[in-house]
Amino acid sequence: MIASAYAGCHDPVLDLTLLELDRVEARLRLPDAATDVQIVYWNKYRHSTLGMSNKPMSKWSENRHGHYYRATLQADESRIRYLQYVFRFEMEGQIYWVHSHGIETELKQAHAFQFSYAGDRDAVHSPEWIKDRIWYQIFPERFCNGDSRNDPPGVEPWGSEPTRDNFMGGDLRGIISKLDYLEALGVNALYLNPLFVSRSNHKYDTEDYMAIDPAFGTKDDLKELVQRCHERDIKVVLDLVINHCGYYHPFFQDVIRRGRKSPYHEWFYIHEYPIELSEDRYDSVGYYRYMPKLRTSTPQVRQYVYDIVTFWQEETGIDGWRIDVADEVEFSFLRELNANVKRLRPDSFIIAEIWYDAKPLMVACGADSFMNYELRSILLELVADKSIGIRSFHERLTRHYHRYSLKESLQQYNLLGSHDTERILTRCGNDEYALTMLTAMQFMLPGTPVIYYGDEIGLVGDNDPGCRGAMDWKSDWKDNALWHNARFWTALRKSSSALQQGELVVKCKEDIPAYLIQRESEHESIYLVMNLSEQMRTDTDILAGFGLEPGKLQATRVNGESVDRLGYMQYALYRAVH
After folding, report:
1. Over the stretch 13-43, which tens digit does the pLDDT of each residue have?
2. How would you label 363-389 residue by residue, b for 16+ Cβ within 10 Å and e otherwise?
3. Is residue 472 classed as helix, strand or coil in its secondary structure?
């Protein structure tokens, strides 16, 4: 064994998570197979009287880079205080200890990992309602036109070719009119793209944060939508665009007119006056000159945002916010914003838009969840693109879930498509079998699954603007196989304690090749077995390969011909009640 191989097998910042004031989860990766893996812990100042405690760690997966373990520690006091800990395991008859300086053959308490004190707001925030949620993302301009009287000038017929500039008349009344449809589909949380005043169809270039865009309706329409959703136990989260505003926002226009004499000149990142739209004289998001960046370190900007969230939460009763471009907003401000939102309503939920490894940013900004684009990439590269093999897929998936505590993972916003990506069926090359496989994996893995409007009926389209086409209300969704597949999974998730809160186990069999995703709760186990071989396989062959007894399980869902003929990228699902 080489000691250097054990460097970085535990990061106390990223791999120790405060679940509650009195509970932490510790995660460990060992590069070699070991036995009797434990976490040994004690109170730094009461060690002499209380002594040490130890707890076995459970192994949830392995790959060629390591074996993955986790354990949850419960404090004897009301909160975690002065925790010191090391890891212990056995290999080839020798006991080894993992501590902050590496690996040794003897315990060295002076080199223990440490966690000093659980702050009141440091634990993972998890409102009770998030457990069984299934999200449905709506791009309001393209979902449904419920009131033609508020259509913007030059509105085009519903179902026209989507462009970055055209309008089709979707609005809040349209969403209200389709709540029966959403309830039938089984979703119970809505994320709405921006609603506030803007001259674009996407509304990310906000001009007035205190008013609903007239083409979408009124504040009363939003209040009615939220009220009617709550009557159906559907939560509503709005998009909050605070990294930037619109070029025509009156504050930015004042800076253009008055330059440094404007009271708002410190609200933006201005490099040179006078400001010219065609020149690089101010910072904007992604160099889109029509969306100048707000300087969120400025106290007046922060207060402005606090006033915005206070107004809309108090006026409408919304359940939270999705923070646009969260990784560009000052983290100290996001933590303050999170605290302000929670003061208004403790069970509010905040989702951060992050496109890559989100763990360091979550630690820094304190968001409750994030748009899980990283998981999306892992799934799509295996199933849709077929650009990675089963080994690479397994390694990336296990590394991803090792980064987060189970509690954090359970509230990740797990999407397959959005307003910023090509339609998922388009990405799958119009292969509906591939889409059903992706849906199964999405609903099986820890996190809150997301349906982007229209994906449940197979809307197609390339990236923006193609992915923002009008919802198809002419086709009969009752005859749509994809819709019924989505409905099966929403119903299963809402009835399954394992899918809502269960532990994750994933296993890879390269020789078959096949893959297993397993979720375990106190009351049930759910198994998804997938054939990744180009040869037909039976479920018996695959289950036996994972050490499961076929006679004790019965398939409840198959996306192939039968359990006896699972083809490439086809699965069988099993549910066992304890």
Report:
1. 889 999 999 999 999 999 887 899 999 999 9
2. eebbbbbbbbbbbbbbbbbbbbeeebe
3. coil
User: What are the backbone dihedrals phi and psi of residue 482, each rounded to the nearest 5 degrees, phi first?
Assistant: -65, -40
Give the residue numbers annotated as catalytic, written as ranges.
Answer: 324, 353
Q: Which residue has the tokens 């809402």?
A: 494
- Whole-angstrom CA distances from 220 to 137, 173, 214, 296 are 21, 11, 12, 30
Confidence category of residue 3, pLDDT binned at 50, 70, 90 = low
Mean pLDDT of the chain: 94
Place of tokens 């029509």: 290
Residue 247 corresponds to which tokens in the numbers above?
């070029």
pTM: 0.95
Nearest to 452 by CA among 440, 439, 437: 439
Long-range contacts of 214-218 (CB under 8 A, 24+ apart): 214/150, 215/141, 215/150, 215/151, 215/152, 215/167, 215/169, 215/171, 216/140, 216/141, 216/150, 216/170, 216/171, 216/172, 217/147, 217/150, 217/171, 217/172, 217/173, 218/172
Contacts of 476 (CB under 8 A, 6+ apart): none
Give me the torsion for CA of 500, 505, 506, 511, rounded to 10°.
Answer: -140
**62-66, 211-215, 464-468: the lowest-pLDDT one:** 62-66
Burial of 427-452, coded b for 16+ CB within 10 Å and e otherwise, reads bbeeeebbbbbbbbbbbbbbbbbbbb
Write down the pLDDT at residue 349.
97
Please check whether residue 572 is in contact with residue 565, taking contact to mean a CB–CB distance below 8 angstroms: no
Structural domains in the chain, sorted by start: 16-117 (2.60.40.10), 135-242+297-497 (3.20.20.80), 244-293 (3.90.400.10), 500-577 (no CATH)
User: How many angstroms separate the Cα of 313 from the Cα of each of 112, 156, 219, 345, 416?
Assistant: 45, 33, 12, 8, 29
Return the SS3 of 474.
coil
Sign of the four-CA dihedral 214, 216, 221, 222: negative
Cα–Cα distance, 565 to 535 (Å, whole number): 9
**Angle, CA of 14, 355 and 371, to the nearest 5°:** 80
Element (H, E) at 541: helix 539-545
CA 439, distance to chain mean position in Å, is 15
